[in-house]
Design a protein that fits this description.
Elements (H helix, E strand, L loop, with lengths): L9 H16 L5 H13 L3 H6 L6 H49 L7 H28 L10
Length: about 150
C-alpha cells in the first residue's frame, strides 16, 4: 500500500514521464497538457505529487499501461537471465573441451567425455529459453498492434 507522503525516486519520476508521453501519443493529453504535467512529474517530491499528473487519465488505461510495463520488465529480466545462463554454458563447455584436449594429449585417452555434460547442460539451456522463443513466435504471429485512440 502506498502512502501519499512517501518520497519518490528519480526512476519513478522517469516512469511517470514515460506514461505521460504514451498517454499523449494515445490522444489522452494535448502537447500543452503533456508539457505541464511532465514538469510537475519531474519536480514531484512525494507520491501525492506524482499521483496528480495522472489524475484525469482513464483508470483502465493507466492500469493497462502499468501491466504492460511490468510485463516488459519481466521479459527483460528473463532475457538477461537466459543470456547469463547461455554465457555460463559456453564458458563451461569450453573449459571441459580444453580439459579433454589436455588430458588426451598428455595420456592418449581420447574418450569424448565432455559430450555428456555438454548435452545435459544444453538441454537445460534449451528449456530455460523456451518461454522466450514461444513469446517471440506469438508476437510474430500476432501482427501489428491494433490502433488505439489518437493513433490515426
Amino acid at each position: 500500500m502506498t502512502k501519499p507522503h512517501e518520497r519518490v525516486s528519480h526512476a519513478e519520476r522517469e516512469s511517470a514521464a514515460r506514461m505521460l508521453a504514451d498517454a499523449t501519443g494515445a490522444g489522452y493529453l494535448t502537447t500543452e497538457e503533456f508539457d505541464g504535467r511532465v514538469a510537475v512529474a519531474y519536480s514531484a517530491i512525494t507520491r501525492a505529487d506524482l499521483d496528480r499528473v495522472a489524475a484525469e487519465l482513464p483508470p483502465e488505461w493507466v492500469r493497462g499501461w502499468e501491466k504492460s510495463k511490468r510485463r516488459a520488465e519481466r521479459v527483460f529480466a528473463q532475457q538477461a537471465s537466459a543470456r547469463r545462463h547461455l554465457a555460463a554454458y559456453v564458458a563451461g563447455s569450453g573449459l571441459m573441451i580444453t580439459i579433454w584436449l589436455v588430458v588426451g594429449l598428455a595420456t592418449g585417452a581420447w574418450y569424448p567425455w565432455p559430450l555428456w555434460p555438454i548435452l545435459g547442460w544444453g538441454f537445460g539451456v534449451y528449456h530455460h529459453t523456451k518461454p522466450l522463443r514461444q513469446a517471440r513466435a506469438l508476437r510474430a504471429d500476432a501482427g501489428p498492434p491494433p490502433l488505439s485512440r489518437g493513433m490515426l
